[in-house]
Write a structure and sequence with these properties.
heterodimer; A: 503 residues; mainly alpha; Ribonucleotide Reductase, subunit A; two-stranded antiparallel sheet; 23 helices; B: 101 residues; alpha+beta; Phenol Hydroxylase P2 Protein; four-stranded antiparallel beta sheet; three-stranded antiparallel beta sheet; 22% helix; binds fe (ii) ion; binds zinc ion
Chain lengths: 503, 101
Amino acid sequence: MPRLARSEWYDLTRDMNWTLSYVSDEDVWPQDLSNSYGIPTEKWWGWDEPYKITYPEYVHNQVGKDASVYSINAVLSRSRIFEELDPGWKSAILAHYGAIAVPEYLAGIGEARMGRFGRAAAWRNMATYGTLDETRHGQIQTYFPYGLLAKEPRADWAHKTMHTNEWGAIAARSLFDDMFTANDAVSTAIQLTFTFETGFTNLQFLGMAADAMKVGDVDFGALISSIQTDEARHSQQGEPTVKILIANGQGEVAQKLVDHMFWRSWHVFALLTGLSMDYYTPLEHRTHSFKEFMEELIVKQFMDQFRDFGLEVPWYWKEHFLPELDWYHHALHLGVWFWRPTVWWNPDAGVSPAEREWLEEKYPGWNDSFGQYWDVITANVRDGHPELTLPETFPTICNMCQIPLVNPAGFNAGRLAHPEPLIVDRDGRRLLFCSEPCKWVYEQNPARFAGQLSLVDRFLAGHIQPPTMEGALAYMSLSLAEMGQDATNYAWAFEKQLAVPGT
Amino acid sequence: MSAQHVKLVGPLIRGVDADLADAVISAVEADNPDAEVVVEDQGGYIRINVADRCRLTRASMQEALGQATFDLSRLEPALSGFAGRMHTTDEEIVWYLERQD
Ligand SMILES: [Fe+2]
Ligand SMILES: [Fe+2]
Ligand SMILES: [Zn+2]
């Protein structure tokens, strides 16, 4: 029997849209779960995914992907590769698993919502694959660290992090809840699949895969690059959704949804990917700087694609976003290293003389700005006073991105006009923001964010008892054995500058 | 965007699938005879891009792999990303960007 070409039956099996007669559209697609932005039902039926796949093809491919990645894991988990990895790299993968593994399951909730409340049958079909994809990502990224438990007990933060009130977990949860766990289907397609998956997941899953292969962590590199093959497909739910919004006069809505989620994603990924690439990855294995990966995968690749629909770069692009590429993650790195007992991985200072030279080359001016803080820290460590490099007080936290404010470091580096946060008094509450875009996101939809308490808000409201640093660490579920320490026990502080020949 | 801004489009193949990446490079070269094919091996992924429009046909993949059949859907396990927009048919995948500025 001759086999039919896919194109001969694809549309027929996919396009099961019909006009409802027993119930109203609002009953089936409530606005809260699927915001139509006023576009009539039949207009959504033109939704056509650019990346096509059938169920038999899907199943066939996914079995092969899992077979390949799990077999690499089965071999390598019996080797000594993990023990021999650089301590900074281990920190990068512990941070990754904690921030990403369980949110993959949460992304499955967002995909499942589109699978039910997407406004076209073709879309619901793609989102069903997306739901299966994200389940795979949750399972595989909890399974791999599970295999590391005997070697690294904190690998259990792959599962634990999102169930805690650790500050990074609060920031990540705030982002992901806004983006997909608590978002309607149409906005999810724009914010999760179009903005986040087409843009930022490439940074963490491809950029880090590039570094992983250089480091020799084939296990992790094969894992995350395989995950990204699913993302490359299901992220394509964004394009047809954007097209329908634009064709029906809702381009501004699409632009605003992107502007909102691009900024929020940028801040959390500056924290996760920025530190991993520029400080935790061993120097000799760094392929590019974080800024170079941002330029390749976001500023160029993502923006070219994004502008192709007639959308424009976000309003804060030149004034706020591009300048932050030079300083924001460096300031975050200082803060995370200083408050290292509050994270579940061991921050690697990454500022040995050779590393500082690399930082200066990639970020001209680094030595005169951020280097000066590290000079003081290095002196304290060398003088036998590491306790002076540890925190006794709390930082201030942004009421939008939930990330500690690092504005003074940005100001001292000559990148910000003033060191103070932006203050907004609203409904009897004082809100602090790290940046104009964070404030803008909040003010676009204050009711959505009103109930969100930052860690400092919780402290002031008496949720954290006793109200001390110890109480806060317990509130964040960090026991003494789990708290971050310097990744190399301060080895970097004692490395000598290479002697200049002839002197 | 500036006039010199070249918009590269095309696949990013997983580094662990280097054999398939070699076939994709040959196929892209055959399918885009007038274009310069940019290949950047980043270890974890291999960028195989062409300015503005990149074709990849089933026929060229079969030729490059020396296989009688190769459904383009079989590319997915190695296709960790791509630049540009995508259009798929039974016989070819086209990555493209249209905007002129
Ligand atoms: Fe995922
Ligand atoms: Fe995803
Ligand atoms: Zn903020």
